[in-house]
Amino acid sequence: MLKRACDLLLSLLGLLLLAPFFVIIALAIKLDSRGPVLFRQQRVGRHGALFDIHKFRTMVADAPERGPPITVGDDARITRMGRFLRARRLDELPQLIDVIKGDMSLVGPRPELPRYVALYPAALRERVLAVRPGLTDPAALAYLDESALLARAADPEREYVEVLMPAKLQASADYAASASLGTDLRVLVRTLARLFGVGGKGQGSPRGR
After folding, report:
1. Does residue 207 form part of some domain?
2. pTM over 0.85
3. Which of 48, 69, 140, 205 is the most buried (most CB within 10 A)?
4. Mean pLDDT per segment of 10 residues, for the chain of length 209 residues?
5. Which residues pair with 42 in a beta bridge?
6. What is the domain extent for residue 135?
């Protein structure tokens, strides 16, 4: 209950403070390319429930028809504004809406696409899906350069499924097994530090648009 109360309070405060910034981003997205401001995609949430995640759109509107679900390196489908948002992980901010709705938490395993969750080992799947997915978690922080790593692979999706996903899944399962308000606060502080350029800058999530 305390975690949920903190999620609601901080998410509502964040949306209130960021509202003018959201308007600026929305206008920039519309001026940069055709299509909606927000991108919605089905992800797997707590106990396997499906929900629609929200992000600022960073790719061309017909990106799903023009390529694979994994976005690798300098993908031609990414818009100019999209590159700016992804480099700073600003495209993830609308997920505060998902936190308020109860589909997500501020801290928790990153929500995955159903096609990849189907590949999870049963034991790890149960542990990871026992908690709400989050905007950030230790695994997400450890693999901020995921897109660049996949870009160097001969088969990016195979590299993701066979190498990166198992490592991230184990890290997320370890988090879920020992999560507390204290650990969540430390993850949030580390995430904010990364967003503001302290300790290096990542490339963001490879699968969002």
Report:
1. no
2. yes
3. 140
4. 94 96 97 96 97 97 85 88 92 97 97 96 94 95 87 91 95 93 93 72 44
5. 52
6. 2-195
